[in-house]
Design goal:
alpha/beta; Rossmann fold; 6-stranded mixed sheet
């Protein structure tokens, strides 16, 4: 019985690594669309004096988050996963994640990836994001750095800070093809 429990524990422990390897295999081939949650930014929400143009009024990346973002970029390079374009929320924590990971030259602000102020805005943003995903035909990968609420609205699931979700499209819905977790 103990051997069965140990064997089951080993199989379960290996599952995230397998999912990550499947994700890297997809990214090495290019042409994928990746939703990525910004790196570590302690706290919840933004202060009452929030101004999207001023990082000092927002919740920002921690030092751990900045290191995590740099590590994400280094792993993309080490794994030969070509990045063609990076679209990012205009929030500083998302933009900083994108720039630290992939360099400023590839990063473009994409307001549809911002946190939506209400349900109507969220529906409009989802439509714009889905249109961008549908229209993507690049040979490298498209990375979209955003927030948990946007990821949940698009996929119906959650994501850890800094986690990459490789998407597949089936009809009118998105599916998670693989995940890569960056610690």
């Amino acid at each position: 019985m103990l051997r069965i429990v140990i064997a089951l524990a080993l199989v379960l422990a290996a599952m995230p690594a397998q999912a990550t390897e499947a994700g890297w295999a997809l990214l090495r081939n290019g042409g994928q669309v990746v939703l990525m949650r910004h790196a570590n930014a302690p706290g919840n929400g933004d202060p009452a004096n929030f101004d999207i143009e001023k990082c000092g009024t927002q919740r920002n990346l921690s030092e751990r988050g900045r290191q995590q973002a740099r590590r994400i970029g280094a792993l993309y390079d080490a794994r030969a996963a070509p990045v063609e374009k990076v679209l990012t929320s205009r929030y500083c924590r998302a933009r900083d994640t994108a720039v630290l990971a992939f360099g400023a030259g590839l990063v473009e602000p994409f307001p549809a990836l911002d946190i939506a102020p209400d349900a109507d805005a969220l529906e409009a943003q989802k439509a714009e994001i889905l249109s961008t995903i549908d229209g993507y035909t690049g040979s490298g990968n498209l990375v979209m750095v955003t927030h948990l609420a946007i990821i949940e609205a698009l996929t119906g699931g959650s994501a850890r800070e800094g986690e990459a979700i490789i998407l597949s499209r089936a009809g009118d819905s998105l599916h998670v093809a693989a995940r890569i977790t960056f610690n």
